[in-house]
Amino acid sequence: MSSETRPPRPDSATSPRRAVALRSLKGEKEFRRVRRLGTGLRHPLFSLKVTDYRPRHGHPWRPAAHIGIVVPKKVLPHAVDRNRVRRRVREALRTLPQSSHGQPLPACRGILFPTEAALHAPFGELQQALAAAMAQVPARVKVRRQGKKSATGHASGSPAGGSK
């Protein structure tokens, strides 16, 4: 069979390129930071905790969505099911359609906790739920950051550094 008669691949140059890369969240330190500072989003299929994107110390600025997928044994006791739901969620994130603002994934760091329902939900429904949650991420992260500055009072300087 010649190369001219083959059908075009769906991931060929005709499909739009991803503006923000999807990468895996790695390292205990990054997971702890997201758990500590993250803003939560809940859906019947999953829970998501996200923080803004910041490069590691000494690394260049390359905006990417760093998402860690965590499936506890308490949620799905069988390893086969945990691996299957992890693969389904990863593929749903990877193949998200582009949103109205032109990119499917915002630059962020997040931890996604799928529920048992994510294992049995239709793939399209899972993808729509993830797309809706990812569309909310930029607004949630900005609100959290602004709220944190005003709540601590450190935006204008240290209160103990001035008068006695």
Structure description:
This protein is α/β, with parallel strands linked by helices. It has helices at residues 28-37, 79-94, 117-120, 123-152; strands at residues 21-24, 39-43, 46-52, 64-69, 108-114. It has a 5-stranded mixed β-sheet with strand order 1-4-5-3-2, with helices on both faces. 24% of the residues are buried.
Task: Show the helix and strand layout.
Blueprint: E1 21-24, H1 28-37, E2 39-43, E3 46-52, E4 64-69, H2 79-94, E5 108-114, H3 117-120, H4 123-152
Parallel strand pairs: 1-4, 4-5
Antiparallel strand pairs: 2-3, 3-5
Helix pairs in contact: 2-4
Write the H/E string, N to C.
Answer: EHEEEHEHH
User: Would you count the extended β strands for me?
Assistant: 5
Distance separating the two termini: 85 Å
Structural class: alpha/beta
Overall radius of gyration: 19 Å
Average of the residue pLDDT scores: 77
